[in-house]
Specification:
By secondary structure, the chain is of the alpha/beta class. Helices cover about 40% and strands about 20% of the residues. The strands form 4 sheets. A 7-stranded parallel beta sheet has the order 5-2-1-9-10-13-14, sandwiched between helices. A 3-stranded antiparallel beta sheet has the order 7-6-8. Helix 12 links the parallel strand 13 and strand 14. The protein folds into 2 domains: about 230 residues, Rossmann fold, CATH 3.40.50.10680; about 40 residues, no CATH class. It has 13 helices and 14 strands. The structure holds guanosine-5'-diphosphate and calcium ion.
């Protein structure tokens, strides 16, 4: 079975780990979000690709769900001593090696998709990981400039998320470069030839949103014959971890399992909500999407594998319709 999944960082990769456990023989392709990418100290950092690569490759710091296990911060301390910005984004020593290799290969002319493949040679994540695009796309967040005159400024997503903890209200979210971007080689094919397309419980606005915003990808997902099934990243009206509610607010979507389903209703065949949101199933089904309530807390490998199994079961159910 060929499964193609769109994924952000932590939520996406934890789910993917469960998926590989639930379907060990499946051929899984992951289309990763690159709109979180940022250049720091001259280095190209791809947080979501790396989280998928480290999580599935056994190199992740489990306690936080991102970054390298056994990390040290000697370089970050030295940079701090120089007062080098951006100090709000700490890069660990081990992690830095990844960014050095990536930046060096990009400078040598390799596209990000080839670089990602090379990095995955080491990590053997057990999936084919492809960035959504080889082109530069960056999520920027428009916030008040601080003065009362209504002036605004756009900041990089990471500055809003990591430095400001998404506490400053986002007026708009802008995907800079998305309209000019092309899907990376293999992306459209992986969607067209899939037996199942999955939307893991990733951030709908800044992880899944940017992937679908690359021209051609949303249409390919809608057009593929494969059943399309998603899992709600919202449980009981709140994001399980992180600040997805702040991002949803910025685009005027309620922080509910049904609200997120509606964002993707044009392309979804099936949607899983948590059992506490069982009453939302009627709303989602009214939008034409088959909806089932199952436990959606990724508390460990078994519960997460069960979620993945439920998603694949739902895909079979809607395929038969
Ligand atoms: P990021 O790029 O690291 O922010 O990760 P993703 O975009 O892939 O996923 C983040 C989202 O995962 C959060 O907004 C949460 O809503 C969701 N999430 C995290 N843990 C869980 C969980 O245990 N269950 C569910 N259903 N969603 C989760
Ligand atoms: Ca991310």
């Amino acid at each position: 079975m060929r499964i193609t999944a769109l994924a952000g960082g932590i939520g996406g990769s934890r789910f993917l780990r469960g998926l590989l456990r639930a379907a060990p023989d499946a051929e899984v392709t992951v289309i990763g979000n690159t709109a979180d990418d940022i250049t720091l100290h001259g280095l190209h950092v791809s947080p979501d690709l790396d989280t998928v690569m480290y999580t599935l490759g056994g190199g992740i710091e489990e306690s936080q769900g991102w970054g390298r296990a056994g990390e040290t911060f000697a370089v970050a301390e030295e940079l701090g001593a120089y007062g080098a910005e951006a100090q709000w984004f700490t890069l660990g020593d081990r992690d830095l090696a990844t960014h050095l290799v990536r930046t060096q290969m990009l400078a040598a002319g390799y596209p990000l998709s080839a670089v990602t493949e090379a990095l995955c040679d080491r990590w053997q994540p057990g999936v084919r990981l492809i960035p959504m695009t080889d082109d530069r796309v960056e999520t920027h967040v428009v916030v008040a400039a601080g003065d009362d005159d209504g002036a605004e400024r756009a900041i990089h997503f990471q500055e809003w998320w990591v430095r400001l903890h998404a506490e400053v209200p986002a007026r708009r979210i802008v995907l800079v470069g998305a309209d000019q971007a092309k899907p990376a080689p293999g992306v459209l094919d992986a969607i067209a030839t899939a037996d199942v397309v999955l939307l893991p419980p990733s951030n709908p606005v800044v992880s899944i949103g940017p992937i679908l915003a690359v021209p051609g990808i949303r249409d390919a997902v809608r057009a593929t014959k494969a059943p399309k099934v998603g899992l709600s990243p919202i449980i009981g009206g709140s994001p399980v971890r992180g600040m997805a509610d702040a991002a949803l607010k910025a685009i005027g979507v309620p922080t509910t399992a049904a609200g997120v389903a509606e964002l993707f209703a044009d392309l979804l065949d099936g949607w899983l909500v948590d059992t506490v949101d069982a009453e939302a199933t009627a709303t989602v089904e009214a939008a034409g999407v088959r909806c089932v309530a199952v436990p959606l807390w990724m508390t460990g490998p078994d519960t997460t594998a069960a979620m993945a199994r439920a998603a694949l079961d739902l895909a079979e159910e809607v395929r038969a319709r």
